[in-house]
Design a protein that fits this description.
heterodimer, A: 330 residues, alpha/beta, Rossmann fold, OB fold (Dihydrolipoamide Acetyltransferase, E2P), six-stranded mixed β-sheet, 28% helix, B: 294 residues, MetI-like fold, binds adenosine-5'-triphosphate, binds magnesium ion
Chain lengths: 330, 294
């Protein structure tokens, strides 16, 4: 097996309160793995445990078949990139990037050359002598990435690295970073609570809730086939109902009065909250008692209108039994 | 627009209100300073001259005193900074959610003179420690106890200043420690640095401006304080403030200009030192303030 990372039954308690419970997963070498989950579900804690900044309470972590549970953070070939860039303010860009290499006792010439190559790749070579306060938010985050990548860690952990940037910048950086990670052959574990980011960045995706993974799979598979209603609500692209999940493109909204007569349709009552445009098609933000959803409609709707969300019963996917799902994953 | 002119008005108003107090302070301090400088350039009869400075530069006593003064000041400051820094590191975790911070204030409330007296009481050859060691049989005679106070190097003075200024250092450094984003230390660790690297890269640069300020204050204060050297120093060489005091009260007043110039010279030295140090870290300070966080 060319498994790079294996986590077995990992748990973490803060003063007896379980934060992570029984997490097991593995990562292949070169794989990009994303974790998505609501705020407070323990994503950051998981990364901190992997990086060695927190001790785990139970379980085992193996990197390259060797247990790293008892290693200090600096002894693990794992680098954690934080939500903020956290560049050292009194060091220039190039000094920041060479920092890790210096700790590894590289010769000055070598580390500067290596760092310049990396800065070239993140398109910031011309700013190598600038200080962090002279950079924009996006530039800082790139330097931070270069600072991590230059070390060629076995595993790179990224904790919502783009969440403090604006939407447009986030989208452009996303593609750039994924390309760079693949090019450098870096195995990465990427955390986000942005669904699009999760799908785009990952080869595989895990959905996390309340300190455990509730589903792991290929992004497309997870998004279209959530294994439970929680998973469907967190990541599913469509209508998450108690009985099952309906993919978005099968759902339409109609005015309340035009209830279709056929009995093999699923209905949910809702209300149009806003009208918007997505992919050049008018779309409606419809709220219902389980949440809200952005859907298309056959005819024009108005904000404030009561509507029915409906889909063919045969399009509804039953949630897979979780046990069955778990057996498949592990 | 409105807000800005309002702010300006406000600033002006503040200055107007403070003016009386400012004027009195400036007048008193300014007059004192001016009078001291003027007298250092005059003879007793009031003629203008450089004589006292020429005399100082030709005086071995002065240079011995100057050397001793700055040696005691700088050594005390360095020791106080080092001990204070180590203690701050140990204490800040502990103080995080506790009101025991107040405890650090207590030594600050003790007057320097009392602190000096305590050192004398404990560390002199006839003091409590020598007596204790003698009683325990560790010393054959009490005079075997090392001479720590009233000797030429100024150990007693340094001892007093260190234990008196360590709490001051802690008070200066503690707030900075709470400002430091602890994630920076974690960044160092995850990039392969150890705890010492984390101290060098994160804590020290953060503390540097305050350390420099604190040391300037301490050096200037110690170099010009009178009571501790008077209590714990020796007759020759003596610390400059004591030297100046003696010149000032020397018989026929003819040495008063010397007394003034003997205090003005180290004052100017300390001022230059302060400007140099603070200027040197100014750039660094700005980078730290503007570049932290995101
Ligand atoms: N040092 C700590 N001591 C006690 N509880 C903690 C500590 N750190 C985190 N927690 C708790 O652990 C839980 C998970 O926190 P964590 O930061 O891992 O969430 P997260 O998934 O990263 O959330 P977000 O998406 O908002 O960043 C939270 O309920 C938090 O209160
Ligand atoms: Mg987090």
């Amino acid at each position: 097996m060319n498994q790079l990372l294996q986590c077995k039954n990992m748990s973490k308690y803060y003063s007896k309160i379980p934060i992570l419970q029984n997490i097991s997963f593995h990562m292949r070498s070169g794989e990009h793995f994303t974790i998505v989950g609501p705020s407070g579900c323990g994503k950051t804690t998981l990364l901190r445990c992997l990086a060695g900044l927190e001790a785990i309470s139970e379980g085992e972590i193996c990197l390259k078949q060797k247990s790293i549970v008892n290693l200090k953070p600096e002894e693990r070939s794992v680098v954690l990139m934080f939500q903020d860039s956290l560049l050292f303010p009194h060091l220039t860009v190039i000094e920041n990037v060479t920092y890790g290499l210096k700790r590894r006792k590289w010769k000055k010439k070598e580390r500067v050359r290596k760092a310049e190559q990396m800065l070239e790749k993140v398109k910031l070579l011309q700013l190598k002598n600038a200080f962090p306060h002279e950079l924009s938010g996006g530039q800082k985050q790139r330097v931070s990435l270069a600072r991590a990548l230059v070390l060629k860690p076995d595993l790179l952990l990224l904790d919502e690295p783009f969440s403090s940037l604006d939407a447009a910048l986030r989208e452009s950086l996303r593609g750039e970073v994924k390309e760079l990670l693949t090019e450098e052959n870096i195995t990465s574990l990427f955390i986000t609570h942005d669904r699009d980011e999760a799908i785009e960045m990952g080869d595989r995706l895990a959905v996390m809730n309340n300190g455990t993974f509730i589903q792991i799979g290929e992004p497309y598979e997870v998004v279209t086939n959530p294994s439970s209603i929680e998973s469907a609500k967190i990541i599913g692209e469509g209508l998450a109902l108690e009985e099952g999940f309906i993919p978005l493109h099968k759902v339409t909204a109609v005015p309340m009065e035009q209830k279709p007569s056929e009995k093999d349709y699923v209905f949910v009552q809702g209300k149009v909250k806003a009208v918007t445009v997505k992919n050049n098609i008018p779309c409606y933000r419809v709220t219902f008692d389980q949440g809200s959803i952005l859907v298309a409609a056959d005819r024009k709707l108005e904000a404030g209108q009561n509507v029915l969300l409906f889909a063919k019963r045969e399009d509804m996917k039953k949630y897979k039994k979780q046990d069955e799902q778990w057996r498949r994953v592990q | 627009m409105n807000g800005q002119s309002g702010f300006l008005n406000n600033k002006k108003r503040v200055i107007t209100h403070l003016l009386p107090a400012l004027a009195v302070t400036m007048l008193l301090v300014g007059y004192g300073l001016w009078s001291a400088i003027a007298q250092s350039f005059q003879t007793i009869e009031g003629e203008w001259t450089f004589a006292s400075y020429v005399q100082l530069f030709n005086s071995h006593t002065f240079f011995h005193s100057l050397k001793l003064t700055f040696r005691v000041a700088i050594l005390s400051t360095l020791l106080a900074l080092m001990i204070g820094l180590i203690m701050t590191r140990m204490l800040y975790q502990f103080f995080k959610n506790s009101s025991s911070k107040i405890l650090v204030w207590i030594p600050i409330l003790i007057p320097h003179f009392v602190a000096g007296y305590l050192v004398y009481l404990f560390f002199s050859q006839s003091g409590l420690f020598s007596s204790l060691f003698y009683q325990l049989g560790l010393l054959d005679q009490r005079s075997d106890f090392p001479i720590l106070v009233q000797e030429e190097f100024g150990i007693g003075m340094i001892l007093t200043y260190v234990w008196k200024e360590v709490p001051f250092v802690i008070l200066m450094l503690l707030p900075v420690y709470y400002e430091i984003d602890h994630r920076y230390g974690e960044v160092v660790r995850t990039l392969g640095g150890n705890k010492w690297d984390a101290f060098k890269t994160v804590e020290f640069p953060w503390l540097l401006p305050v350390i420099v300020e604190t040391s300037v204050i301490l050096v200037a204060f110690i170099a010009s304080a009178f009571e501790i050297p008077y209590l714990l120093g020796v007759t020759r060489p003596e610390m400059l403030p004591v030297r100046a005091y003696e010149w000032f009260y020397d018989g026929d007043w003819s040495k008063r200009p010397l007394a003034f110039s003997a205090m003005i010279l180290p004052g100017v030295l300390a001022l230059l030192l302060a400007m140099l140090c603070i200027g040197a870290v100014q750039q660094h300070r700005l980078r730290m303030v503007k570049g932290r966080g995101r």
